Amino acid sequence: MFEKLRDKPLASSQERFETLIGRTTQIYGRLVLVDSVRIDGKVVGNIETAKESKVTVAIGASGEVSGDVTAHRVMVAGKVEGNIYASERVEFH
User: pTM for this structure?
Assistant: First the structure.
C-alpha cells in the first residue's frame, strides 16, 4: 500500500513552486495557499489550500510542520506532526 521513494527527488521537474520557505524561516499561524509551496524551514500551524485549487505542498528534508496539512498533493521528506489530507496523493521520501 505504501512505497518508500528514496531514489526519487522530492520535487519532480514538472512541479513549479511559486513559494519557498527557506531553512532559516519560521512561520507561526495558519497558511492558506493558492500556489504550490516548498517548505525547507519551520511552520507551526495548519496549512490549507484555497478551494478547488490543485496545490502541492512539498516538505523538504530540513522542513518541519507542526499542524495539519490539506492540499491536492503532499510530498514529505521532512517532519510532520499532524494529519495529512490530500485529494490526489501523499508521497513519503
Answer: 0.84
